[in-house]
Each structure stands twice: as C-alpha cells, then as structure tokens.
Amino acid sequence: xxxxxxxxxxxxxxxxxxxxxxxxxxxxxxxxxxxxxxxxxxxxxxxxxxxxxxxxxxxxxxxxxxxxxxxxxxxxxxxxxxxxxxxxxxxxxxxxxxxxxxxxxxxxxxxxxxxxxxxxxxxxxxxxxxxxxxxxxxxxxxxxxxxxxxxxxxxxxxxxxxxxxxxxxxxxxxxxxxxxxxxxxxxxxxxxxxxxxxxxxxxxxxxxxxxxxxx
Length: 215
What we know:
- The protein is of the alpha+beta class.
- The chain has helices spanning about 1-25, 30-35, 40-50, 55-65, 70-75, 95-100; strands at about 90-95, 115-120, 130, 145-150, 160-165, 170-175, 185, 205-210.
- Strands 2-1-3-4-8-5-6-7 form an eight-stranded mixed β-sheet.
- The N and C termini lie far apart (about 55 Å).
C-alpha cells in the first residue's frame, strides 16, 4: 500500500513537472540540462516519473519554470501562486568591541557559548556576530545603541560597505570602507569625527550587513 501511494505521488509530481516545463517554453530535458547545468538523465527521469525528486530539486524546478513550489511539489494551490517562505530565526552571539579585536589574532575566539545572544530574522547564510554600537562615529547608519550584525565569512572589501576591523594591537572598530580616501576606513557621522588611528596591518573581522535599533 505504501509503495503504491509513493508511486502515485511520484507520478502526479512528474505530471505537474511536465506541465510546468511545457508551459515554460524552455525546451526538453537536453535543453534544460544545458541551460541550467543539470544532469540530463536526472531531469529525464524526473519528467518521466521514473525517479522521484526532493525539495531542493523541486525548488530549483519551480524557480526555473516560474511556478509555485507548493503546487509543483505538494499539489496544493495553483501554479501561479506566490510561495511564502517561513521566516528563519537564529541566535547570534552578542560580543563587545574588545572581544571583536581578539578575533583578529591567530588564536581568536572559537567558542561563543558563554556570550549572550540576540535573535535575528532571515539572515543569509554566514558566520554571524552581533555588536552593540557605542559613540557617534557611524550615526548616519547606526546610531548609538544600535545592534549591528557582521558576517565573518564576508571579508571582501567593497567601496562604501561597512566592516568590523582590527589593528595589530587588537583595537577593533566599526567603519565604512572608502577606497578613494586615506585612510580608507572612515566614519559615517553627522559630526566632525576624525578617522580612527590604527597600528600596523588591518584585519577585516567581517562585513556588517544589518543595523537595527529598538524604538
């Protein structure tokens, strides 16, 4: 009974996949494989219902064909429905700027279990830390008491992007990168605040991707 039910669901899912593929006008399994870098035999098996596909492949097909994943995979709703993704909430360690400076060393902090955490909604994938902003040097973007979220996996310097950085002495700060200025890490303030005085090699701890403040 279970096998017959699984076969029925696989065939129904394949039928919806074929419907979406035909309406998309993107061609058969060979053209689809070439266009999206998929395996020809895998796509063919899914379209013919000879093999089943999971949620990851289902979301890829739904995006490629411009249809609702819920309709394509589960058979609920209509093809042109808009999928509502459930919100993801993660707890991010809330560290001090002093602790951020320690991250620049070879023996930096690896265990964040003793730090308090702050919840963040729908952050993209990354290695996140949170810090509470002190002072007015970045008040155009982050007023005092703001909480900023920095991705430690994102260290590529981009003009006008904001970063947590530290110098050779472990002094950490939050500044905006201006490739056309010297020094390149500058305040973003309504006040006349000079750039930080940093010593030696500058280490990027992570790029700040979000700034929030309670009202």
